[in-house]
């Protein structure tokens, strides 16, 4: 049973709706285009990103090259962990105030460093 998806911009509750619906840009880099992300992992009572929790399972070469901690931290940056629910499902109205805040909150240098780690898949 999945948790109810929170409103766009609200704190993530681990419902997994975003990853069950479509792959994020990082998921597309690792697995290619598609719908449900193969790295969506159940952590009762919620879901989590396997690229953050277990990068060695999904990207062993990246993990070997950069270490589990660095690969996991880079994945967390790239998925926007901690910023809030960015999934817009079923015609949901976007929270534009949150979106503007989230864009200002991004650390561009950290994002570029994280992308450099994961682009090497």
β-strand amount = 5-15%
What does the average pLDDT come to? Answer: 92
Structural class: mainly alpha
Assembly state of the chains shown: single chain
Strand order of the largest sheet: 1-2
Task: Give the ordered list of helices and strands.
Answer: HHEEHHHHHH
Shape: globular
Report the count of strand segments.
Answer: 2
How much helical structure, as a percent, in the residues? 40-55%
- What integer value in Å does the Rg equal? 14 Å
Q: Helix count, per DSSP? A: 8
Low-confidence segments, given as residue ranges, are none
How far the N terminus sits from the C terminus, by CA atoms, comes to 33 Å
Task: Report the biggest beta sheet as strand number plus sense, adding barrel if it closes.
Answer: 2 strands, antiparallel
Number of domains: 1
Detailed description of the structure:
With 121 residues, this protein is mainly alpha-helical. It has one domain. The chain contains eight helices and two strands; from the N terminus they run H-H-E-E-H-H-H-H-H-H. It has a two-stranded antiparallel sheet with strand order 1-2. Helix 6 crosses helix 8 (108-118).
Describe what is shown at a glance.
This protein is mostly helical and 121 residues long. It contains eight helices and two strands; from the N terminus they run ααββαααααα. It has helices at 17-21, 25-31, 50-53, 55-58, 60-66, 68-79, 96-105, 108-118, and strands spanning 40-43, 46-49.
